[in-house]
Every structure is written in C-alpha cells, then in structure tokens.
Amino acid sequence: MDTAQDIENDKIIPFPSPVMIQEDKTIDNKTHLKLRIIKDRLFKYIVIVFSLLSFLPLLLILFHITKNGISVINWSFLTELPKPIGEIGGGIYNSIIGSLMLILLSSIISIPLGISAGIYLAEANKGRLSNIINLCIVVLQGTPSIVIGIITYLWVVAPLGGFSALSGGIALSIMMLPVIIKSTEETLKLIPYHLKEASLALGVPYYKTILKVILPTGISGIMTGILLSVARITGETAPLLFTAFGNQFLNYNIFKPIDSLPYRIFYYAMSPYPEWHGFAWGASFILVVIVLAFNLIARGVSAKWKVQF
Amino acid sequence: MVMKSEKDTSEKRFKNIILVSGLSVIILLIAIFLTLLIASIPAIKTFGLGFFISKHWDPSLEKFGALPFLYGTLITSFLALIISIPFSIAISIFLGEYFKDGLLSTFLRSSTEVLAGIPSVIYGLWGLFLLMPITRYIQTLLGTTPYGVGIFTASLILSIMIIPFSASIGREVVSLIPADLKEAAYSLGATRFEVIKNVIIPYARSGIIAGILLAFGRAIGETMAVTMLIGNSNFLPKSIFSPANTMASVIANEFAESTGIAASSLVYIGLVLFLVTTLVNIAGTYVIKKISLEASKEVT
Prior knowledge:
The complex is a heterodimer of chains A (309) and B (300). Chain A has 2 domains: 39 residues; 230 residues, MetI-like fold. Chain A has 14 helices and no strands. In chain A, helix 8 crosses helix 9 and helix 10 packs antiparallel against helix 11. The termini of chain A are far apart. Chain B folds into 2 domains: 47 residues, no CATH class; 251 residues, Orthogonal Bundle (MetI-like fold), CATH 1.10.3720. The chains are: A mainly alpha (309), B mainly alpha (300).
C-alpha cells in the first residue's frame, strides 16, 4: 500500500508504473489485450456505421426524386410550356431549351479561353507568373457562385439594361473556366516530352506541334474536364438569379431573359402550390439525369480515348 | 525568307495568345475584386466597419447592418462542420485505410462523387419536403414555434453537402501515409485502432484540417439550398431553430430588387464573402500542397 500512498501524495506516476509491476502479469496482459481487441473492433464498426450512414442521404435523395419525379414526367411535360396555375398540364420545355442554350453560350466563351490558358500553364516555365495564375485559379474556383452572379450583374446586366441569356452564359463561363484550365494543364503535363521532341525534330513549328500533336494526344483529358465543368454548371442556380433570371415563355434571343432547369426548380419549389411542387420534382429528376449523364460520359471518355504511353 | 517570317509571326501570335489567356485569369480576378470594391464604396462610406456590428437591416429606413447575416453564416457553417466532421473522418479512414479497394470502396467512393454532383437547388427541394417536417416535429416536441425552416435545417442540409468535399480530401491524405510507418507500428504489436489513433491521425491531421477548412469555405458560400431552408428573416436569430439569413442568402433574396444604397450594401456583403472564401481557400490549398510535396519527397 506504500506505493499507492506515494502516488496519491505525489500525483506523478513514474513509468513503468509500480502498480503495473506489482500486479499479476498474466491476468493483466490477457484482459488488457482483450480490451485492446475489443476497442479495435468497436472502432472499426463505428467507422463502418458512420460511413454507411453518410450514404443514406444520397439514397433518400435519389429515391425521392425518382418517386416524385417519374409520376410527373410524360411527353407533354417535356414539350409544353408552363401554364398558369389552375390549368391542368403544361411542362418545362422552355427551361430545357434555356438550360441547353446557357450551356452552349458558356461553352463557347470558356472552352477556347480555358484550353489556351491551360496550354500556357503546361508549357510555361515554372515561374512566378504561373504560380500567380495557379493561385488565381484556386481562388476563382472557390469564389461563391452568388458573388459571380453579382459580378456579372454589374458587368453585363446593368450596362445592357436588363436580364439576358448572354449574361447568364457569361456568369456560368466564369464558373467553368478554372475546371477547364486545370484539367487541360494536368493532361498536357502528363504527355511524354519525347512526343514533342520528335515533332520539333521533324521541323514542325512549335505552335503546330502543340496544336496538332500535343492537343490531340491529350484530347481525352481535356474533354473530361469540359464535360465535368458542364455538369457542374448545369445545376447552378445562384449565378442565374440576377443574370438569366427566368422566363415563362420560350426564348431564343440571347439578349432576353431565359429560363433554366435549376431556376424553374427553385421557382416551383418556393411556390405555395402542390402541383408546382410536383413539377419541381419532375424537373429535378430531369436535371439529375442530365448531370449524372455528363459525369458518366466524362468517365467513359477518359477511359475510352485515353492514349497509352 | 518570306516563309520564315510568316512562320515567325504565327509562332509569335500563338505564344501571345496563350500568354494573354493565361494572364486573363489574373485580370479576371483583379477585375472581380475591384468591381466589388467600387460598387460597395457608397455602403463603405456610409456605414464603415460599423456595418458588421449593427444588427438593423431595414431597407425602408435605409439602415443597413450585416451582423444578423454574419452571425447566420458563421452559425450555419460551424454547425454543419460539427455535424459533418465525424462522418467525413469516418469515410476518410474507411476509404483510405480499411477498404482501400474492392467493391464496397468503389461503391462508396462513387456515391460520394454523385452526392457532390447533385445540384444545390435539388438539395434545397429535398430539404424542403423531407428535412423541414422532421425539424417541425422536433420543434413541436421541444415546444417551440414550429417554423420548420431555420438555422438547424439549413445546417443539416449544408452538412450533407460538404461531407463529400472533406471526405475526398481526407481519403487522399490518409492514403498518402507511408506504409513503412504503419508497418512499424504493426510490428510492435499495435492493433489497427492504435495504428489509426497513434500513426494515421497525427500524420494526417493537417490534411484533414485542410479538408475541413475547404469544406468550411464551401459552406460559407453555399447559396441555394440555404436560401430555401433558412427562413429568410433579417433579424438576429434567437436560437438554432429560429429562421435567419446568411450572407449568401440575403444577396440571393434581395439583390435583384435593390437599388442605390441597398444594392451597394449587398455588394459590400458580397465583397466580404469573396475575401473570406479567398483566404480560406488559399490557406487550405497551401496546406494540402505542402503535404503532397512532403509525401512525394519521402517516396523518393
């Protein structure tokens, strides 16, 4: 009991603790080992349970979208314009067309710029400038989409004097840009140097080497990046709130407000009418299918067109 | 000679084009910052830094203070982080250590990718019809006013949305840990739990924190789902169940209809949002870059 008293008094446990030494070793080791194994098992189960639990929301979201969405979707839902509340029927044709137009507009702006900036980053010497550009890309990628909405409003909507499809396309292209630049850069950096050397050795000028040898070799990676960025912007709503706005009617004019699937979902979801809630689910189902399809195609492209070295 | 000069000019043109596109990213970012700054000057002049202490947001009186939104953003983001941390760490360990490959791992990994790909407005819709009744039920049990929407619901949906981000970064960091470190611990008789607790977690700590930081940056800027679920009240929230507004959601709600000083105040909020997410993102990326550099050094 002396030692116990000492410990009580000193409050310092020397290592190895005298208590541990005094006690029966065999029993202590066995129970200790058992305890450790139990702890190990318990931890593993906790990890598995938590991991699978975080899988639950996805399951629920997909389940609800499918359950509530499928029942709304039919041919007229896809090909008709929205009708005022109270009338039966109507669809989201204008939103689908609007979303496609926005994707097209933003792709036209961001793909050439993104690819050539990506070429610059891949080809330029590792210097201060490319570090700064990389930093800017990180910041741009993390910029909240609502801030990009404000910016495009100030840059395009205010000078033009009204909401327009064009401004929506510009807002979305700012969101696409970092993804395309990054994927282009990373793809081109992976291409072996001897390809470029072989082309240059044949007397092909540098710019033709890049455009005709390096870019086609990396096309799968670049395409994957483009598709992923399109998947990302297809569901964006926040930058469209004060740019493309929304439009009850079909519109092909890029200087007029245009509808989009995510905006329509938002509009219908916040409305007090149950029919419109149903429409929101239907539109969500279509949006999720489009986004997932882009993701799947992106994977297929990167797997199928990959050039092996 | 003509041929050569022609070639030279196209060469030069090509180099100029790619240089200009590279520079355009920098110009774009500077332009974003300057535009936000210039557009918020009226608000900065009128309210100064007191903007963030004042709790009155009243467009009719032209009195603007951003404290309720600052508060709303911080509370929803922190709550979301706290809810999401156990899950994202569990997934990181699950995918980085227990099940590095195999069917279950591929399944979970692709499902987190799908989760990250679902548009935020759909999270909002789902939250509106599934989480809102749940919160309402909890509120009736607690005896408070059953709004259904509010900080709690918004934090729940945010936490679901940010789990994939911190989890995917955490997984990468955990799988980067050198095998010899783990093997050394195993050879001393450590159980897997002890290896995780004493080797993996300390080693991966900064990476996991960086992942959480980046998720935080995302949570701050998240707009649509939060706008749909937070209840849009411009007053200082009283409890975690009361309706509120975040910086992003107040912009989403009011910017399209505001003019003059009100619009300028909203841009001011946007400027702060932009600066905060920029800082958070740079810090998070810096930490991750440092870790992957260290890891690549140790391999060679």
